[in-house]
Amino acid sequence: MIFAGDIGQLRPPKSNATYSYKLVKQLAPSISHTFRGQTALHGAFLWHQVDTVVELKKNWRAHEDAMFVALLERVRKGAPEEFQKFRDAPIVVTRKSLRDALNESKARQFALNTNQ
To answer: Does the model's pTM come out above 0.85?
Structure first.
């Protein structure tokens, strides 16, 4: 059987990757007693039976854009310094309650950073 994809891609939102140890580390009822959980467990157990892996290391889709490839590598490895320049970027939200919470959080952080 051949599997294709990016083993280093970001995990699915609000879920675990198929090969994640978290699925089988603790078999909580929320995982083992639901259809979605059962499906995830089947995928995890199948994944752990794979014994031969061929890793392709060159990104051919974006090979002409070295800066973009480097950015993707930093994002996939979780390099927080990449995002420091966006620390004060505006955040657009659609709910007033969320906007107020973000503004309060940013105001508190600014006060801490400036000793106020």
So the answer is: no
